[in-house]
Amino acid sequence: MADRIFINKKHRETIDFWSGEKNILDFKSIENIEKFTLAASLGIENPLPVSKPRDGYIRLSSIQTYNKALLSSILLGKAQNDEIDKCADEEKCLEEAEKCVESGFQILKDKLNEARGDEELLCKRLMAEIELLYETKVKPGLEVSE
Q1: Cβ contacts of residue 53 below 8 Å, gap of 6+?
Q2: Rounded CA gap, 104 and 140, in Å?
Q3: Cα dihedral angle (144, 74, 64, 54), rounded to 10 degrees?
Q4: 22 in helix, strand or coil?
């Protein structure tokens, strides 16, 4: 098993740019695992193989348990009942998260371009997407259990 989570090297350049003077989405002050998780959440519907060259991004030993659980939920959330044991493998979960990040950073880059670099507009659009996801995916499940 690798000792790191990997990303495409071009994403490292994007992250460094966003963490620089522009400080897009406060990337300058948040941890790498938070950047990784954000990208993974955006790419969860369309995971792609990590393109080469790959770059070690986060040491596994530095990831807190709650973040590992969150990243593991990506693969486990897609598992059928008979696949749960197979999908509970940490290495496979992290590989799936890397695939989600591969598409997620491109999605985030596209969203920023669509907002013409306007971070406030980007944030408003992201919040609107979150609200829509809540209304369509989460709230109906809560109403059924009441």
Answers
A1: 8, 9
A2: 26
A3: -160
A4: coil
Judged by phi (left if over 0) then psi (alpha if -120 to 50, else beta), residue 25 lies in left
- Confidence at residue 103, expressed as pLDDT on a 0 to 100 scale: 95
| Contact criterion met (CB below 8 Å) for 104 and 43 | yes
- CA separation, residue 141 to residues 45, 57, 137, 138 (Å): 20, 36, 7, 5
Mean pLDDT of 80-108: 88
With residue 101 as reference, give the H or E element that holds it: helix 90-114
SS3 of residue 64 by DSSP: coil
pTM recorded for the entire structure: 0.86
- Classified as helix, coil or strand, 58 is strand
Q: 38 pLDDT band (50/70/90 cuts)?
A: very high
pLDDT tier, 146 (very low <50, low <70, confident <90, very high otherwise): low
On whether the CB atoms of residues 33 and 58 are closer than 8 A, the answer is: yes
